[in-house]
Amino acid sequence: MELLKNQYVVSAACYLAIPVSVWAVLSVPNYPHVGMLVVLFAAVLARFIPSRAVKTLCYLLLGFVSYWAAGNALFVPLGQEAQLFSFLPFIILAIANATAAVVAYNDGYLNGTVFVGASLLAILLTKGPLDTGGIDRFLITGFIFTAAGELFVLFASWARGPKWGTYNSLKAAFVAAFIYGIIYVLRVFDISVLNFQRAGEVGTMIAPVFLGIWWASLVANFVTVSLAFAAYELGLYVLGLVRTPQADSVIFTKKGEIVEAEEDPYAALMKRAERFFEEFSRYEPEKASDVLGELESEYSALARKRESPLRPNVGRMLVQARGLLLGARLEVAAAPQPSEAPKARAKTAEAAKMEQFEIPEKSVLLVEGPIGSRKEEFCLNIMKKRIEGKEKCMVVAFEPEMEAGFIGESRLLAQVKVEQNINDMALSISRALEEKPKFVFFNILYYLVPNYNVTTVSGFLASTIKKLKNSGATAVFVMEEEMLSQQALSTLESLFDGVVQFATVDEGGKPHSHYRVKELKFRKFDASWREYG
Fold first, then answer.
1. Residues 6+ positions from 71 with CB-CB distance below 8 Å
2. Weakest-pLDDT range from 22-36, 114-128, 220-234
3. In the predicted model, what is the mean pLDDT of residues 388-399?
4. 257: Cα separation from own chain's centroid
5. Nearest CA-CA partner of 474 in 440, 503, 447, 507
6. Domain covering 355-531, topology
7. 482: helix, coil or strand?
8. I need a labelling partner for 318 at 20 to 30 A (CA). Which of 156, 311, 326, 512 fits?
9. What's the pLDDT at 326?
10. Per-residue confidence (pLDDT) for residue 259, from 0 to 100
11. What are the C-alpha distances in Å from 275 to residues 263, 286, 289, 311, 453?
């Protein structure tokens, strides 16, 4: 086992197995399985190559050699289809499928898929049973041949132990045999001349070929794959190892060692989100903003790295938490404020100018800033003034009643509740804009940014902005800038007519909101910071 720690020895052994197996297949044509067994040994050994790139290349080459040997064994020239019913070629093919299954069983589904993916090129080059006489059928049968091999990888990766491995190999062999039967029927018969209106006659013609191939393939693959699993488990027993499959990998431990199951990081995040809801009433608004900001930052980082069944649930919880926090902040903003000292109430000329800031008509702006910087309040105050001016306005959000609560009841305010699926969201927005609102406030980016890549979000925004332009509406979007890298943020900012940036400054132990016009296309603007409120 010490040799397995030397990456150069393991890599050299795996790559040396490739020419050796090719030589064996070519030099001993009656016993090609000898060379394929060398490939099987190398494929098991390749797991210990530490470099991901080197390992991937090794699996590709080994997969190509394995299925190349199977394709050569299966090849029969046109006009000699009687040779297709020999059982030996199916044994060779079964060894290739068994190797793919063992790779998945030994080193995870992704590596098994890499191995079997090389079968497409191998089988197309050797033609195998695919020499159907037509390029369209040739390519189609090549792809479904690879799909049959992928079945063994998929079912093997699901197996938790040798019994399940044997059972899953039977299921995979059953379905793969059906696929191979279709391939051979396409090879033997010219489908275009079959009269499918006379189904009985067609069935009588096809059934012997299909059932013969199906049975030979089923038996060969099931027996061979099961034997491969048995030999593999015997090897683990001799070495005193225990195989423990994880979410996307396989680990080995010595017998007697306890292996803790890999904890889903989304589970821990979900528990913290639940605790946030339980303790929300005890938080000050600023403290709640900080806690929620940490949760959303962790969620964004996780969403970029891995998937999990818990991810949608956590995303929905954070959406609800944001709505809860927004409602609390808007209640505070709408409540009457105690009078302050004259000095604190005094407005500078810049502050007065700031309060008079108006969004250019028919433009679409992005308002960005950290949680708690009052950017939502800024946008809603603009919308409130427009409603007072008898303009038709619209709120697009996951929980628009929160924003509508700040404005108050008004027949001029439309609430558009959108779903979390970006395609459904785009459809809802298209329908809503048919009402021709004059001003639209969007509070959706805090969910879209961590759950979709920048390209998808950019495409969605570009399409939505175009719809807004066509409808003649003025609109603002709000977003937390910390959710994105600087490059990704610049990409999104470039889509808008302008950008307003908010920031929070601690002055005398109390946070104060400031903002500036960061960008306003084709217009002169003052980019200096001013206090808001």
1. 122, 123, 125, 126, 127, 128
2. 22-36
3. 91
4. 34
5. 440
6. Rossmann fold (3.40.50)
7. helix
8. 512
9. 62
10. 46
11. 19, 17, 14, 17, 29
Which H helix or E strand runs over 396?
strand 393-397
Tokens found for residue 289: 């903003």
Q: Which two tokens stand for residue 407?
A: 């404005």
Angle between helices 52-74 and 7-27 (to 10 degrees): 10
Of 50, 43, 42, 38, whose CA–CA distance to 7 is shortest?
Answer: 50
Q: Return residue ranges of the chain for CATH 3.40.50.300.
A: 355-531
Question: What is the distance between the alpha carbons of residues 26 and 323, in angstroms, rounded to a whole number?
Answer: 68
Q: How many angstroms separate the CA atoms of 222 and 95, rounded?
A: 10
pLDDT digits (tens, 9 = 90+) for 143-185: 888 899 898 888 888 777 777 888 888 888 899 888 888 888 7
Cα–Cα distances in Å, from 10 out to 14, 36, 112, 115, 250? 6, 19, 19, 18, 19
Q: Model confidence over 337-370: pLDDT tens digits?
A: 443 433 333 344 444 444 456 788 889 999 998 8
Spatial CA neighbour of 132 closest among 176, 79, 67, 207: 79
Query: H helices within 189-310, ranges in order?
Result: 199-239, 265-279, 285-305
185 by Cβ neighbours in 10 Å (0-12 / 13-18 / 19+) ranks as: middle
Beta pairing, strands 510-520 & 250-254: unpaired
**Residues in the chain, how many?**
533
pTM: 0.49
Contacts of 127 (CB under 8 A, 6+ apart): 71, 75, 138
Which DSSP letter does residue 81 get?
G
Q: Which two tokens stand for residue 460?
A: 């969605």
